[in-house]
Amino acid sequence: MKITRIIVLIALCTSALNAQEKDVSQNLKLKKILTDLKAENNPKNFVKALKDYELLKKQALEVKNKALVEIKEETVSIDEELLDVEVKIEESIEKATITNQDKEEETQKELDCVVNIEEAMYYLNLDKNNEKSLSKAVEYLTPCVESGNATAQLLMARLYAIKKTEEDYIKAFQLLKKSAKQGNVSAMTDLGVLYKYGKGCKLNYNKAIKWFKKAAEKRNNKAAYSLGYMYLKGFGTVKQDYVKAINWFEKSDYPMAKYWLGVCYYYGYGIDKNVVKANEFLKTNFDRTKEVSQSSEIVNVEEIKQALEKEETSTLAKVTKKQLNGVWEGDLLFFDWSATHIENKIPFKITAKYDAGSDVLHVTTTIADKEQNVDFIKLDNSLYFNDVTVELPHISFSKNIPSVLEHQLLSSDVSIKQLNSETYLTGSLETYVNAWKESGVPIRFVLKKKRGLENSEEELSEEALAALSKQEDSFIKLYPNPFEKDLIVSYSLEEPTNTKVTITNINGLQERVIKPYTSQEVGSYQYYVEGRNLPKGVYVVTILSGEERNTRIIIKK
C-alpha cells in the first residue's frame, strides 16, 4: 500500500469535515440574518435573503456529498490494495517456505552424495578390477548421478570408460559433458581426451584443445600437459609447435610435462639449449661441456652439399617395381617431431627381387641385424605394408620409458635420386606405436644401391642424409593412421582449382565421394570421414586437384 494514498484519504476526510463545519457555520449565520430580516418586517429583503440561504445550503450539501463519495471510493480502493498486499505476502511466505524446503532437501542430497561418493571411492580403492567392488561403487554413485552431482557423474563416466566398449564410451562421454558444463575441471580434461581419440564421440582436435584449455586455465596440471603434448607432436590437424608446447609444459606440474620440458632443453627445441636445466628436469647428469648431438666425421661435406644443390634429381614419374630391384643399403633416420633434426640413425637394408614373369617384387628388410620378409601393396610411388611390425630404438631419458618400442609399419613414399653417379632410394616411413596408441616419430631412409664393386667407403654426413631424405610434405594428410572409425583428410591449395576427394578400397570396387568435383579457393581444407561402417582393410584416399591426381594409402583396423 502506497503512503500517498493514505495522505490523500486524510486530506479528503479533512476537506469533508471542513465543508460540514462551514455548512453549519453558514447555516447559523443565515438563520440569524433571516431572523433579523423577519424582525424588520420587510418582505422584499426577506424573500431575497431566503433565496440566498437556500442556494448556499444546496452548495454546501453538494460539497459534503462529493467529499463523502470520494472517501467511499478511496476506501474501497485501499481495501483492494490491502487485500492484494495480503495475498502477495501470503504467496511470498509460501514460496519462501517451499524454497527453504527445497534448499534443505538439496543440502541433504549433497550431504548424502558426499557420503555416497566416499563409500564408492572406498570400494574402488579396494580393487577396481573386482566386479563386486565395482557393483557396490555403482550402487552408491547412481542416485547422485541422477540428481546431477558433478563428481558422481565424473566417477561414473570413468567406470564406463574402463569397459572400453563403444556403447560405454558414449555413456561416459555424455556424463563427462554434463559434469564439465557444471565446472568440474577433471571432467573437462577427460572430455578433451575422448575428443582427442574419438571415443564415444566424433574425433575432434579443436574441441579437445578447447576443453584442455578450459581445464588448464583452472590450473589442471594434466590438461596443461595434454595441450603441450599435442603441440609437441603435432597430432592430426594440430600444427607442431615447440614454443607453444613449452609454454603449456611450464604451466604444469604433471611429471611427464617436466620430462618433455627437459627433453626440449636437452636438444634446444623451441628454447635455448641448456643441459643444466635438462638435468634438473630429467633427473640426469649429462656433461654440460659436451655437445648434445655430434655429427659423424665425414670427408668432403662441402662437396656433397654442392652436389645436392646442383646434381640432385628425383624421379617425379612413377617408380616401377623393376627400378626397385636390387640391394639397397644405408640408414634409417629418426627425426624430431618437427622433422628437421636427426635424433638417431640405425643401419637399414632392403633386398628387392623382381620377377618379370609374374610382375611380383619380393622384399626383405634388415633392421638392426633382424631380417624379415615384407608383404606390401604398391600404388604409384607409395607402399602399403601388410601386418609388418618391427622393434625400433627409442631415445629415453627415464628408466620408466622403454628404449625400444614395437612399431607397426603402415606405409612409405619412395623416390629414386641420383647423386655423383650413385643411385639412392629415399622414403618416409609412416608408423604406429600400439603401446601408446599414436603415430611414431618421423622416420626417413636413405639407401644407396649396392654395386658389384664399391668405389668408396665414404659415409654421408647427417646434414647430407637429411637433405637427401627430405621430401615435400605429402599433399594429402591423413589422421589417425590406421583408423578405426573416424578419419580426417587434410590438404592445402596454393592456387584456386577444381578438386574432388574420394576414398576407395584397394581393389577399386567401392568408392565413396567425400567431396564432389567443385572449385576451391586458396587455403587449407579438412574433411571428416565417418568410417564406422567401412569394412576392415586397405583404402586409397584420392584427391584430384586440377589435372593432378594425388593418392595416399591408409588402413582400417
UniProtKB/TrEMBL annotation:
Keywords: Signal. Residues 1-19 form the signal peptide. SUPFAM superfamilies: HCP-like. Residues 478-555 form the Secretion system C-terminal sorting domain. SMART domains: SEL1 (SM00671). PANTHER family: ERAD-ASSOCIATED E3 UBIQUITIN-PROTEIN LIGASE COMPONENT HRD3 (PTHR11102:SF160), SEL-1-LIKE PROTEIN (PTHR11102). This is T9SS C-terminal target domain-containing protein. It comes from Tenacibaculum singaporense.
